């Protein structure tokens, strides 16, 4: 199935796509979902290429697999689990069955419990031992941190609840900084861990409990837990009334829609949180119904497959011109790389093409003054994904927002157009002449013909954030199906965890001589320096 695409690539790879880009192409090579527009016209995908890409969806049965996911089939085959984060935002979509049982009543009941608790925290009906809650500390890592942390930042203009802090790293610097800024008597600690065994989270949770017990009589009274492991939360001393459970069919990096989103709900209130869920649900409906050529997640995925597996561009830059989306690249690193960073297919065969790309990025315009040099003139092509809102939330500073938008559009235009030697010579002709003019001009040439896409939306409100996150989730799903990998396990994180456990006694002083020379040498160096 890859050969046809590879052959097509040979026919377009040197063509300058700017020459194809008239208004008709701009309209045709864009997908709309609700009030969002995804423009992929600044790429070298032409109509024939798109048709071959869309064939991939049919050849790999994406539609049937999508429907299987939404209806509770156990598509996470290596863990024997359904994949149903979509049920968490299925506010009025009817029953969803797992093993013959409708999961929606429990989902909605948990949502209602979360809403009750969040409202109590926000109103002061649930208080700390020193008064109303002023600070919420979410302790979690990976999906139990990145979702709510990214979301709380993204929706900062809607934040009207207590302050929220996110502690994830086992590095004591992380928790020490946060606890220093909080009063234990008015702090709520939320321990967010699907498994309730993750060493970083459990270590930080114990540190927070010890910190709180220095000041308050009953520290457990100011703890809540978000987990699938009710027995372990109770062993930790958190009463069932403040445990918000979920099922194993919610993957960690897909979990911000349910209990793992509690800190976000406390920050923005349940009405705004529901708007976020509704945005996700709207994208689900679009993904299930829109024809492929207009289907935003499908087209985003196909552009990704084209750039990585066919054109060979190994990385993908996510560049939000929306400062509140600063943590989106980090969130997407887990979502995409933990999901599709696999080398073996569902059938146990070696993958015959590259796995998912390296995802990275920073908000614009900051990145422009850092790494865009390489994006424009480096030898590797980096497909860029821009995100931009029509308006921000600072109405009195709208002129600054306009400048931000101008920069975003300028970057995708510059990547496409570039600047040839003649234009570069004209730029410096008044300063240099002869051979020196040529030499100086060459440094000012931009190759151009570098691909980018732009996701544009009216404003980053809770509904839009829901659309964006669900869009990327479904993109990962589609890319995973095409590659034939299981996007919902993460065995690749296990080995490091095992070795860290084995190394713990050694860093605490046990003999390191059976370790490899490098590891033993590093332990010895660190010990000599205070380990
Ligand atoms: O929520 P938990 O169980 O603490 O896991 C945290 C994270 O750790 C991982 O399992 C990877 O180590 C992620 O998939 C997950 O989001």
Automatic annotation (TrEMBL):
InterPro entries: G6P_Isomerase, G6P_Isomerase_C, Phosphoglucose_isomerase_CS, SIS_dom_sf, SIS_PGI_1, SIS_PGI_2
Compartments where located: Cytoplasm
Location, primary (coarse class): cytoplasm
Entry keywords, A to Z: Cytoplasm, Gluconeogenesis, Glycolysis, Isomerase
A Pfam short name: PGI
Active site per UniProt: 338 (proton donor), 369, 497
Domain of life: Bacteria
MF terms in GO: carbohydrate derivative binding; glucose-6-phosphate isomerase activity; monosaccharide binding
Record's function text: Catalyzes the reversible isomerization of glucose-6-phosphate to fructose-6-phosphate.
Protein's UniProt name: Glucose-6-phosphate isomerase
Organism in which the protein naturally occurs: Pseudooctadecabacter jejudonensis
Gene: pgi
